[in-house]
Design brief:
The complex is a heterodimer of chains A (321) and B (261). With 321 residues, chain A is α/β, with parallel strands linked by helices. Chain A contains 13 helices and ten strands. An eight-stranded mixed β-sheet of chain B has the order 2-3-1-5-4-9-10-11. In chain B, strands 6-7-8 form a three-stranded antiparallel β-sheet. Chain B is globular, with a radius of gyration of 20 Å. The two termini of chain B are 20 Å apart. Classes of the chains: A alpha/beta (321), B alpha+beta (261).
């Protein structure tokens, strides 16, 4: 006897089959998340496979699954995702946080707890959805942060997420392009020129930091800058190329390191003495970055490269001497 | 009452369906929910680690971490085989069936209790090949850990965040390794106590839930509790039985001390 079409297990089987047939990646995982979302749950793990869906819910599942058939990422369909223990809104084309970045923030936290027992000022370059700066602020209640991104949508999303996680008081978000010559950009910021201040009620401490001296202001600069090479771009899934901001992915230059180098130069000027730069980079980058820093960056030392959960080096720690 | 050394620890609660097919799995779900509600009643925190449901609405097995004040102390005698006697929903002839499920209570080790070398742990996750990082979008955050020296495994996919799944799988793994060590120690101790913890208990029938007669019987202290529905709702009724068990256990340990000193 076939089970009725409106029970969860049937719906999951059906859509897994359809996704699979249409080469949609992670077919059963995708179906699981979308059905769970319709039922008000985060994951399919606790949903009873025997639960019945109403006709309204069935329609909702269908609408969401049709979006997935168009390769829309699950995180955009559901409109939110978890980064460690933070739930953040997700909105195209702002980059969806990757699992590797969950490890980056833990490394930065350990470094901050070690060097700055009291409060610190953190700069997040290329903040995207705000995952990095918001998670750090949540875990260090006395810190303040400035987050920048080239994208207006990213700045708005970071601000929205800061508001919903009640961290807006300690964060200022600025739209700025770190590649248009850092010194100009810094002076520009000092003069509030070419600057879209998304937040109006800037905290007094942040106000002084942003208008005072940007040079040597930050205890930590952290960044997950775009680092994909032109060759890799050609291989990316539609989930990325059709929906995520190319500016958040394309690293620039034949080795994908252009933006990384800009962030390094920016840190040279804006880090305090003894301050740290933490970067998430592509797998080929750590040795290239080490060489670049040795040859071109006086005052900055390449401290170490750390592995991600696959055991491959991905996180670079630099320090201003 | 004096505290035993592990009373302060948080625990991992594991339920597994036993004999009785679909009916056993439905019963497993009911018992798991009973303890979830009891945790709420006692103001404890519950973190779900594993939850494998069946197509027909039952629970094959589940694991949860429970933390709070006195968790192990109150739950330690809940480990063992629980038995249900009732007419299953699918039964046409109205006959009473007996089905079983097993509860395991494992204290979670404190940091100093257990040393695990990172190189002894192998982690399985999706997309282990490929460039990873920015070059791919992934939502499959399931994590499976294997402790190579003992072969003990723990898996978690109840969270969207891979890191959270990893943290929970790690807690489960540590608890399982720790408990294996504990049980090896306890196996050498000899005791005539009715109330015991550990693997010997795992196969002991400790409690029967009889629906037609509306009673719950704990086989270690005898006596019956009526109002089964209230009992299984994980509130005051269950709490009373647990307190009785603790009292009995204390009396037994005094007796044992007296007999052997």
């Amino acid at each position: 006897m076939r089970s009725p079409v409106n029970i969860v297990s049937s719906i999951l089987t059906k859509w897994t089959r359809i996704f699979s047939h249409n080469q949609v990646p992670e077919p059963s995982t995708s179906a699981g998340y979308l059905v769970a979302h319709v039922l008000g749950k985060k994951t399919i793990a606790t949903v009873s496979k025997q639960a019945r869906l109403s006709s309204k819910q069935l329609l909702h599942v269908q609408q969401l699954c049709l979006q997935r058939l168009q390769r829309r990422p699950v995180q955009y369909i559901v409109g939110e995702w978890d980064f460690c223990d933070l739930t953040l809104k997700m909105k195209p084309p702002v980059l969806i946080p990757r699992p590797e970045t969950e490890e980056l923030v833990h490394l930065v936290l350990a470094d901050l707890n070690d060097r700055c027992p009291s409060s610190a000022l953190i700069m997040d370059v290329g903040c995207g959805s705000g995952a990095i700066c918001l998670w750090l602020l949540k875990n260090r209640p006395d810190d303040r942060s400035i987050a920048v991104d080239i994208s207006t949508e990213a700045c708005q999303l970071t601000r929205d997420n800061a508001e919903s996680t009640d961290l807006l008081r300690r964060l200022a978000v600025h739209r700025c392009d770190v590649t248009t010559g850092i010194t100009e950009s810094v002076d520009a910021l000092n003069n509030h020129h070419n600057l879209l201040i998304v937040r109006h009620d800037v905290d007094h401490v942040l106000e002084s930091a942003s208008t005072l001296k940007w040079p040597q202001s930050f205890d930590v600069v952290v960044s997950n800058p775009p680092y994909i090479t032109p060759a890799e771009m050609a291989d990316l899934d539609p989930e990325l190329t059709w929906y995520e901001d190319e500016r958040a992915l394309l690293g620039g230059g034949p080795d994908g390191m252009d933006i990384i180098k800009e962030v390094v130069r920016f840190s040279q000027q804006t880090l305090k003495r003894g301050g740290s730069l933490w970067l998430e980079v592509g797998l080929a980058h750590p040795p290239l970055l080490r060489q670049f820093v040795m040859q071109h960056c006086t005052g900055l030392n390449f401290i170490a490269a750390h592995p991600d959960f696959t055991g491959r080096l991905r996180f670079c720690h630099l320090q201003k001497s | 009452m004096p505290e035993a050394p592990l009373d302060d620890n948080d625990i991992i609660l594991e339920v597994t369906a036993g004999v009785g097919g679909q009916e056993a799995m439905l019963f497993t779900k009911e018992i798991f929910e009973m303890y979830e509600k009891y945790a709420l009643f006692m103001n404890w925190q519950v973190e779900l680690y594993e939850h494998s449901t069946t197509e027909l609405g039952g629970l094959r097995r589940a694991s949860a971490g429970i933390s709070g004040l006195g968790v192990y102390r109150f739950l330690k005698f809940e480990g063992g085989v629980h038995r249900v006697q009732r007419v299953p929903k699918t039964e046409k002839s109205g006959r009473v069936h007996t089905s079983t499920m097993t509860v395991a209570i494992m204290p979670q080790p404190k940091e100093i209790d257990i040393v695990i070398k990172p190189k002894d742990i192998e982690m399985d996750f999706s997309k282990s090949s490929g460039k990873g990082g920015q070059s791919v979008n992934t939502t499959d955050s399931c994590v499976r850990l294997v402790h190579k020296p003992t072969g003990i495994v723990a898996e978690c996919q109840t969270e969207r965040s891979q890191l959270q799944n990893r943290e929970r799988a790690m807690k489960m793994l540590k608890a399982r390794i720790y408990n294996k060590e504990l049980e090896e120690q306890v196996a050498n101790e000899w005791s005539t106590r009715r109330l015991q913890v550990g693997s010997r208990q795992r196969s002991e029938k400790i409690r029967t839930y009889n629906y037609p007669q509306d009673r719950v019987t704990d086989h270690r202290i005898g006596g019956n509790q009526s109002n089964l529905r209230e009992f299984i709702s994980g509130g005051q009724s269950l709490h009373c039985l647990i307190k009785c068990l603790l009292k009995e256990s204390w009396k037994e340990s005094l007796l044992e001390m007296y007999m052997y000193c």
